[in-house]
Design goal:
It is globular and about 50 Å long. The chain is of the alpha+beta class.
Length: about 260
């Protein structure tokens, strides 16, 4: 595998739109998106706008000179932070999108969930969630969704836990909307800060007592081929976001860490 190198990283944007550009090529970018920022449907204030501004300012010399637009290859919810892949033209976008549709892309997320999530001791604290889900979003009362449900699989591994929370790495093998959040809810361990699938009581406590007001879900790792002739490249984010790290550290000592 090929890994991104530290010297490819740079900061673009400012204020709440400040984000890390992890890597870029002639017609593509990989960005570490902050929580609360949309990818492409908030003109002037979304990820595509920030990258386009950096391109127009001449801050991205690796990009081909005829690239004048920025397109999202895949999506993250506004409240989910982490790695986003963008394309500068239609052929590049189609090449990457095909890998997503063929499930040839590996995506790993870091999530903090409520409670002590315990794995199977015989599987080294690894597990798999297999509840079928509807294609669209659902709600806290019916996280599987109403209507036709299709098979869904999320693999997970316990990384650490504090007194009240567990840090897990999740790898969705299918791509249903809010899949990790819905599967976590179905386990009885919803993602911390989830306004759609979590409880209002927990949200109030987090805001009032922990000063925590985000969704504790972060797209940490992306593995994808950049060309037909290359082995997959692995992109890794800057790590667990500060707010998520502080929540764990302030919830007494982390008692299990791999």
């Amino acid at each position: 595998m090929n890994d991104t190198t530290p010297d490819q990283r740079m900061i673009i944007g400012s204020g709440p739109l400040k984000m890390t550009l992890l890597a870029c090529g002639p017609t593509w970018w990989v960005v570490d998106k902050p929580c609360g920022v949309s990818i492409h449907n908030d003109p002037g204030n979304d990820v595509c706008a920030v990258v386009l501004a950096a391109l127009e300012a001449g801050k991205l010399p690796a990009i081909r000179t005829d690239v004048t637009a920025v397109h999202a290859v895949h999506r993250l919810d506004r409240d989910t932070s982490g790695i986003v892949l963008l394309a500068g033209d239609s052929p590049t976008r189609a090449f990457f999108s095909k890998q997503f549709s063929e499930r040839a892309v590996r995506k790993d997320y870091l999530a903090i969930v409520h409670g002590q999530l315990i794995g199977d001791p015989d599987a080294s604290d690894r597990g798999q969630w297999d509840w079928p889900l509807t294609a669209g979003a659902a709600g806290r009362k019916h996280p599987m969704g109403k209507g036709k449900r299709v098979p869904c699989t999320t693999r997970w591994q316990l990384l650490a836990h504090s007194r009240h929370y567990s840090l897990v790495q999740c790898m969705p093998l299918t791509g249903r909307k809010h899949q990790i959040r819905r599967h976590a809810k179905l386990t009885g361990h919803p993602v911390v800060g989830d306004r759609r699938y979590g409880s209002m009581r927990a949200l109030t406590y987090l805001t009032t007592h922990c000063q925590f007001d985000r969704l504790a879900l972060h797209a940490h790792r992306l593995q994808i081929r950049l060309s037909r002739d290359e082995a997959p490249t692995i992109f890794v984010s800057d790590g667990l976001p500060d707010a998520m790290q502080r929540l764990l550290e302030n919830d007494q000592d982390i008692v299990k860490d791999r």
